[in-house]
Specification:
Elements (H helix, E strand, L loop, with lengths): L7 H9 L13 E6 L15 H12 L4 E5 L8 H6 L2 H9 L4 E3 L9 H10 L3 E3 L3 E3 L8 E2 L1 E6 L2 E9 L8 E3 L2 H14 L4 E7 L2 H10 L3 E7 L5 E5 L2 E5 L6 E8 L6 E8 L8 H18 L4 E5 L3 E3 L1 H4 L5 H14 L3 E5 L7 E3 L2 E4 H5 L10 E7 H11 L11 E4 L1 E5 L9 E7 L10 E7 H5 L11 H4 L8 H10 L5 E2 L7 E2 L12
Parallel strand pairs: 1-2, 2-3, 3-4, 4-6, 8-10, 10-11, 11-13, 16-26, 18-25, 23-27
Antiparallel strand pairs: 1-14, 5-9, 7-8, 12-13, 14-15, 16-20, 17-19, 18-22, 21-25, 23-24
């Protein structure tokens, strides 16, 4: 479904030229700059991204005419800074970058309610959500279902949507399809003909939205971490690459009888100089991180590449998954360690060379510190958890499990609930009987909060004192410095047999 971006030459000009962009020929065009799934404001380790560069791009495009800068969700969490500051740094950076609109991503709802409300209140931009409200059905303070804005001589209506999920109890997200239809009816009744959706849901859901709602001119989306440009007739669904590795530049003109849209994917590289105001904000927050964690120090050496990309990690055993679960099992003295892959946020390959405490901290980005609980579980219940990890709604996504102390085979061609093939074994040993009792290590999110769809009532006693449980990052640092002697390489594979690793089928949570 991914298309090559239109107007690639224009995108390159936007990224490299010092002169203003050429003025578009159509009458009354509306321009959009889209980013999505931006967890860090700083430039990435590979030299790409950086919100200060995106701000420069936005300013250059705005020289050609009125432009709306929008964010399609996932910004307040998770990141190393957000683990400590709850997304304050991202709001300040996007305020400096002159963002116009944002919608909620699923990760926004991992924050406590008071924190989320405070971030909305501090935003100079507007938050839109047509389907996600407080549990009582009222909009979050400061958020709105939709908005209209006068741009280039026309009234543009924008509304936000977020996919449904197992969120914290203070959140209620209704069916996004029904919510979209209601708001489109409302905007149309007001005479608004240029209606744009700002969404955080799957690309399939975005395409279905355009097909159902002919009055929606354009979908500016997020949730996937890779760029998309999918067309439904002359209308587009577009998404950028996560962490501002790229931005989508869309020009929209025409009307409901003949929409015309030009889409250009703009790589965010060092060819774009940073906006100084945004750069100051980013640097200040990086300084605060160093004050929080102390100096960066080397804890070991990576001797062979360690696979940690989401596209593989959410479908198959990986080197990072093995290392982390081994550290969990060693550090808690559990029989079995289980880790939902969505907990691991590195999404890259750990390459040979020095390994620092900052790198290991950056693997675990959630506000609960990814604390690891231990509790007893029968062999029958262990098998049920393993089945959930390879179910049709889990395979290829965050619930997929990385494991230590256990081996099994699975077949995704089978029906959900019957995908574990044969017996589940202890590591290199005997089959685990349904009546056996094992000590299991599992993070707080799936164990206590029903995260990723897990239901683990056996963990309830441990959940009562979860704040005293060890952090996964600490367990991993001690494991690297202790049993591994500072030498880090992927452990021998073979714990999970089955599936089809696919780097192209990128993870999205």
């Amino acid at each position: 479904m991914r298309r090559l971006p239109a107007l690639a030459a224009l995108g390159l000009m936007a990224a490299t030229a010092c002169a203003p962009l050429p003025k578009p020929q159509p009458a009354n065009p509306v321009r959009f700059v889209l980013v999505n799934d931006v967890y860090v404001a700083d430039t990435l380790a590979d030299g790409t991204g950086g919100l200060a560069r995106v701000a420069t791009l936005r300013d250059r495009i705005a020289l050609t005419g009125p432009t709306l800068f929008v964010l399609a969700g996932d910004v307040l969490s998770p990141s190393l800074l957000s683990k400590y500051y709850g997304g304050r740094q991202m709001v300040e950076a996007f305020n400096a970058a002159k963002l116009d609109y944002a919608t909620f991503g699923n990760h926004e709802f991992e924050l406590p309610r008071d924190t989320l409300v405070a971030r909305i209140a501090a935003s100079k931009f507007k938050w839109l959500s047509s389907n996600c409200t407080e549990a009582n059905g009222r909009p979050f303070p400061g958020a709105r279902s939709w908005d209209t804005v006068r741009v280039a001589g026309r009234t543009v209506g924008l509304f936000g949507l977020t996919l449904q999920g197992d969120y914290r109890s203070y959140v209620r997200c209704s069916d996004p399809d029904s919510a979209a239809h209601r708001v489109v009816d409302s905007l149309s009744a007001m005479g608004v003909t240029t209606i744009v959706a700002l969404t955080h849901q799957t690309v399939e859901a975005d395409v279905a939205l355009l097909r159902r709602e002919p009055r929606v001119a354009l979908v500016l989306g997020g949730h996937e971490h890779e760029h998309y440009d999918v067309t439904v007739g002359a209308r587009h669904v577009v998404k950028a690459d996560a962490d501002a590795r790229s931005a989508q530049f869309v020009t929209l003109w025409g009307d409901t009888t003949a929409w015309q849209e030009a889409v250009s994917l703009v790589p965010i590289t060092d060819r774009l100089p940073p906006d100084t105001a945004v750069r100051r904000v980013v640097d200040r927050w990086q300084d605060s991180l160093r004050a929080k964690l102390g100096p960066e120090r080397v804890v070991g050496t990576i001797t062979a590449p360690v696979e940690a990309r989401d596209a593989i990690q959410r479908r198959a055993e990986t080197g990072l998954g093995d290392l982390v679960t081994d550290a969990m099992r060693w550090g808690t003295k559990a029989d079995v360690a289980l880790l939902n892959s969505g907990t691991l946020r590195f999404d890259d390959v750990l390459r040979p060379g020095p390994l620092t405490n900052y790198q290991l901290e950056s693997i675990f980005l959630f506000a609960d510190g990814t604390r690891v609980l231990t509790f007893p579980l029968t062999g029958a219940r262990l098998r049920e958890l393993l089945e959930h990890g390879v179910a049709s709604g889990s395979y290829g996504k965050g619930p997929f499990l990385q494991v230590s102390g256990v081996e099994f085979a699975f077949d995704t061609a089978r029906a959900t609930g019957e995908r574990i093939v044969g017996a589940v074994h202890r590591a290199g040993g005997a089959p685990i009987r349904s009546t056996d009792t094992l000590t299991v290590a599992l993070p707080v999110y799936p164990a206590c909060e029903g995260g990723d769809g897990y239901r683990v009532p056996e963990a309830k006693p441990a959940c009562a004192t979860w704040e005293q449980a060890p952090r996964a990052a600490d367990l991993l640092i001690r494991y690297v410095e202790g049993p591994l002697g500072g030498q880090v390489a992927p452990p021998p594979a073979g714990r999970l047999r089955g599936g089809a690793p696919s780097p192209a089928a990128a993870g999205s949570h």
